[in-house]
Amino acid sequence: MTKNIAESEIDVNEEGYLTDMTQWNEAVAEAIAAEEGVGPLGEGHWKVIRYLREQQEKGAALTIRSMGKSGVVTTKELYELFPGGPLKKSSKIAGIPKPVGCI
Amino acid sequence: MSTESQAVKKICLIVSKGSLDGVYPALIMANGARMEGIEASVFFTFFGLNALVNKTLDHLKVATVGNSALNMAMPMLGLPMTMPFPTWMGAIPGVSAFATHLMNKEMDKLDIPPVREFLELISDSGGKLFACKLAMDMFKLKREDLCDRVDDVLTVGQFYEESAGEGTHILFT
After folding, report:
1. Which domain holds residue B127?
2. Closest-CA residue to A23 (of A40, A42, A5, A43)
């Protein structure tokens, strides 16, 4: 399915996660963040978003533990930046698939 | 009673066992709850306190005696899961330590942290860790014997007060 996000037609799944990460841009991120009640996006958010996209390109499986150890953000900061579901919300905003792990 | 599905807002987990396999499920469920934006509290009582005592929490073991499901771990030794693990073998010195070592190795592969780091992770994520006052008295433990991430030592009544609120679930593990 497609959804109009930041004035462009974006391919998303039924939960609103982008199915093609190349369709992502910063305006799309801002729009999803607003919908998720996150932000306005500051440097802290962008650092996490960029890191998530890099990891996704490498095909790494993301966990909350690996995020806390990344050096990009501490666990506490991650929860403060993306309240109500840190890994899920940040992944959605970063335009990458929903994390599937339990950790 | 409403037929509408109601979201879980808070989960309160009670841990009464102090083996590795007795403690981890609650830690995983608590962390998983926080990742979903659900509030989480873990109340450690009886032998569950083993996971909060500074001197013991890094050395929790898998029970190899009286654990009739240990065949589940056989594939870690390259053996079929249907092969039973004789309970007398579990009593041989070192077997529990070896089983624990294997289990820890597998968990690390899945990015499941060791107990101390897991407590820190849950605490950093806003989850609460409580010790049972009665069990503390029984085992002659003091607050300073516990990991510094423990939020408080509570009576049963205080734990129920802490669990108040619509959408809270209490689970005994």
Report:
1. 10-172
2. A5
Could you report the per-residue pLDDT of B40-55, keeping only the tens digit for each? 999 999 999 999 999 9
Which burial class, exposed, middle or buried, applies to B63 when counting CB atoms under 10 A from its CB (0-12, 13-18, 19+)?
middle
Mark yes or no for CB contact A64/B126 under 8 Å: no
Q: Summarize pLDDT for B121-136 with one digit per residue, the tens.
A: 999 999 999 999 999 9
Mapped onto helix, strand or coil, the DSSP state of residue B118 is helix
What is the distance in angstroms between the Cα of B43 and the nearest Cα belonging to chain A?
20
* Mode of pairing for the β-strands spanning B152-154 and B128-132: parallel
Helix (H) or strand (E) holding B20: helix B20-35
What residue ranges do the domains of chain A occupy? Answer: 2-94
DSSP 8-state class, residue A99: P
**3-state DSSP call for residue A27?**
helix
Whether residues B34 and A79 touch (CB distance < 8 A) is answered with yes
CATH code, domain with B158: 3.40.1260.10
B148 in reach of chain A (CB within 8 A): no
List CB contacts of B3: < 8 A, sequence separation 6 or more.
none
A41 belongs to the catalytic site: no
Cβ-based contacts of A101 with chain B (< 8 Å): 110-111
Contact A101 B125 (CB under 8 A): no
Cα–Cα distance, B62 to B20 (Å, whole number):
5
ipTM of the complex: 0.92
Report how many domains make up chain B: 1
